[in-house]
Please model this.
Amino acid sequence: KVSSATSSVAPIPTVIPNEPIYETVGSAGGKTLWVVFVLMLLSTLGFTFLAWSVPVQKRLFHVITTFITLFATISYFAMATGDGNSFAETVIKTSHKYTPDTYEYVYRQVFWARYVDWSLTTPLLLLDLAFLAGLDGASIIIAIVADLVMVLTGLFAAFGTTGGQKWGYYAMACIAYLVIVWQLVVGGRRAVSAKDNKTGTLFAAIGGFTLVLWTLYPIVWGIGDGSRTWGVDAEIIAYAVLDVLAKPVFGFWLIFAHATNRSESIDGWWSNGLSNEGA
Ligand code: RET
Model:
């Protein structure tokens, strides 16, 4: 009788599938989603009341900004109630010398509601900045299309199964982001230089604030969904802080600062349409 301990024969490999690993939202993440839902709802009401306090012709920024927080309210409602998410599967293969390769399955909760939100709200945020600067139509359309490419490739990246897929889409999204930055920084500065100094200063400040915030999104993505260094809750909290700054804080700043400093041509287009421009 040969016991396995003294046998010189390698044990017959038994392939036992690993338990899948689930990365999901916890209680801190869940509470954060509700807090941001409430903040977005209150901001939406706040922007609506501010809009009513000015004549219809002067409501362009109020209307755009109200839509931005309204979409965020809906998206955060979805995420807080457990909707708008799905599990992204990644398979980690480990090769062994004597036994067959093993595969580890990781399922991470991805909130795709964010990407639906971003695909509607980031173009509106760009419109706010573009109208403030008086940006030309070509630059506006290029920036908005690049923005949609950025958000949608970001969504594909989040559900990528392999590293190649995830980081491939991520690279495309980053290139699209650079196109947006180029249009807004180069085109926006050129356009705003034809306006008064106050608008120039406001555009530089609020544009700089936007540039810093927006650049943090791909960084959070890389640490969270990308490399999985952060868990789902840390990612939720980081996006929560960024979203509150990029939507309500940005919006109140823009509306209060711009109240004293209006752009006649944009107001004309807003209330009369292109064909009556200048009338
Ligand atoms: C992703 C991942 C892929 C690479 C890049 C990204 C950029 C996202 C940005 C999002 C901005 C969102 C805002 C929301 C407002 O509340 C999609 C994260 C470049 C810039 C401003």
